[in-house]
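Entry under discussion copied across for reference:
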Amino acid sequence: MLDSFIRKIGVFALLIGLTSCALFESSSDKSDPTVATVDGNPITLSELKANFHNSPATMTPEEDDGLALKEFLSLYIDYKVKLAAGRDAGYFDSEDILRELANYENQSAVPYWLEKRVRDELLAELYERSKYEIKASHILIQLSENASPRDTARAYNRLIEAKQRFLDGEDFIKLSEEYSSRQRNQSMGGELNYFSAGWSVKPFEDVAYNTPVGEVSMPFRTQFGYHIVYVQDRRETLKDRMVSHIFFNTRGEDQSVEESMERAQEAFALLEEGMGWDDVTQNYSDDRQSSQTGGSIGWINTSRYSADFTDAVFSLETVGQYAEPVVTEYGIHILRLDSIRTFASREAEMEHLYERLRQLPRYRQNQDAVLGTVKQVGNGRIVRASVEALENFLDATPQHDFNNQNWDEADELLSMPFYTINDVTYTVSDFKDWLLVQLETENGNRYRFQHLDRFADHAAREQLVSITKQEFEEFAQLSRDYLNGLVVFSITEDSVWNYAGLDTLALKALYEENPEEYWFEQRYRYVRIAAMADSTLLKVKDAVLEGMPIDSLRNEFQGLIIRRDIINSLSSFPFSEMDGLAVGEFSDIFEYRRRQTMYLMEEILEPRQMTFEEAFNKLVATYQPIREAEWMERMRAKYSVHSYPERIR
């Protein structure tokens, strides 16, 4: 049934496309004539054209292509008829369909906000910041996200102290060594190479780009802890370089820097004498991966690599230029400049930046930003009086123990409004029920102040789809379109596709009326045997010829792949390897899917008629369009379809 399934998916895509501009209000204007009516509702020429140009089934760009529009009219009428039939059959109230719609809306709402609001803001910021690179040093005091207020205050005050000592004239790098946390006995702070937008976590980047050159920021928080940043320089961003290298390792036990430099000088001399770059790379480079592609290591920018390496790369200014061996922290390189990144237009540059943005955590993990915006748009607010009443009630037990409260005597408190958003009110009872569930996963029993923010996020998620529809009419239309597509797909599936497989009498009649359509041509039953080595296959062949059953081969030979199947034709590879084989003969050994392979011709099946059971899937596929035509004829009559293709010009 795979072909049938693929066809269903294709039809579903078509139906979703049809709904993309459907259900326009009709017009009685003579310049916009009615080209059809379904159940008394007109389809206007403008509605037909709008759907014609938004349907994946129609690719003609000309608006006045009357012939194509006339052909599309029949398809669109059928779509409207199926919508009417689905409405009357109750499909719009189907629990399965509404559940599918809810899943679609919930999965689509956050990405929609990202595309319509957050993306443009982040992309504009990335574009402006990408014009410049920042050179900075920082002090980092590592701090977990759940650090106590006391530890947080201690880190903040130590950074203020370090900043003041810098302002009093002390060296920032030395202060970083003294104040920064250490990991593997190395400072987590220190001097950074030049970096541009997108190459650090966003809170760090925000501060670095907003701190003037020569100044130190106030302490700020990132996922790593608390920092202060000293901005040393700001310059225009250097354009990315596409670079190849011939690499000489200096970190191996048997490869000293002196010996590697000697080999590098030898390779450089060969280049100077005229030997081709690829030849020298393959013969000398210790980077075996890049040596297979001419030493290419891709696009290089100043943010990802050490300063000594990027300085060497960016000293090359002419495409094709290569430089004498240079020592970096990675090893020794002979570098060649292959290209300098440029863009044909502003649009091309923005597209490149957008692809970068999509890979950044600030874009991928921006649900918090979306929820914050949703709360603002929905006018979300905590009812402070209710919070105070709840906290006073909890004061009766130690540590605000939520699991051991006598809620039976708190009816008045539980009914109080606790949080409102989008004109929906959540009560103290709603908060209580939510928090009890949260405390189960937290393995705790104590109410904390941060639970208020988390409950506000919970309420925003519940109202997300509703607020998104109110804020974006296009999203509301997409939701209606998706529902229409689900209804049309479901009623077609039930009335045509599934029905066709159940109408056994019709299928048998079709089988008996056209026996020549359900026929097997000559077929070949084969066994494909694959192993890593020719020698294994030769042993397998000998074993089979001596009488060993195919099913016993895996017990005798490890690592075999054995597949049995039937094929209709030997015209294409790899089946062509069996062409001319008699039953019981093996093909030659050949490579297929990175393994050594051979075929055994097990049986040649002569042409014959299919049984009804063998022909069943083909019969269903043949009958489905017949069934759909019959069903649509009845539906068109039921919903009084009238078509006026002559009005299409």
